[in-house]
Amino acid sequence: MNTLTKTLRTCSIGLAVIAACSATLPVHAADATPERQPASKQENIGVATGFAVGAAAGGPIGALVGAAAGAWMGDRYHKQAVARAALASDLEKSERDRTRLARNVTELNGSLAHEQERGEQLDLALSQTDEIETEVTFRTNDDAIQTQSLSPLMKIGALAASLPDARIRVDGYADSRGSDAVNDALSKRRADAVAKVLQSAGVDEGRLVVTSHGKSAATSADGDLDGYAFDRRVTVRIERAAPGAVARND
Question: Angle 87-91-95 (CA atoms, 0-180°, nearest 5)?
Fold first, then answer.
């Protein structure tokens, strides 16, 4: 009788072990859904520990309960560990982003300081020289700006745009050949063409003072072709704006 009882108890324990293993350890592997993840190491440890403790405390039933409880606790521990790892990763990423942002701010501040210094240097240079001037020359009876003159003109326009307290004076001229009416109109078209390029470089129209002089300022002698070339010009001057200055004269 005792032998039979022991045999039955052994079978019961064996069945309990099989049932526990079926209910816990392979729980994730047995699930046919693709979303289910394999059991974690912590969950497997919990199953084994719970099973051993439960078997010691309550026999086969205790083993089942202990294994299930161990599986739940192990799975919970695993999820907490995963959450902590994800949080640590997010914190590390945030720290990297903060460091990168701080570096960008530092670089931006350096760029702003450099531009401010450059502006102060330009302003100082202008105050010391009172004005900066350049000339654009033209072909005979032509108001088109030549290609080689565009780059210097754009540069002085950008310089003028960076000095908001300065005004830009544009004066158009013509050589002595032809009538006053023709040369007055020609010198105005030349001055207007230069003013448009300056505006495209960022100079506000309200800071431009445009004047046409015709041939009144021509100095070349009759037949002096080289002298005529110097008379066919537009001068651009950046100068300190006087209070109440006229914005534009046509």
Answer: 170
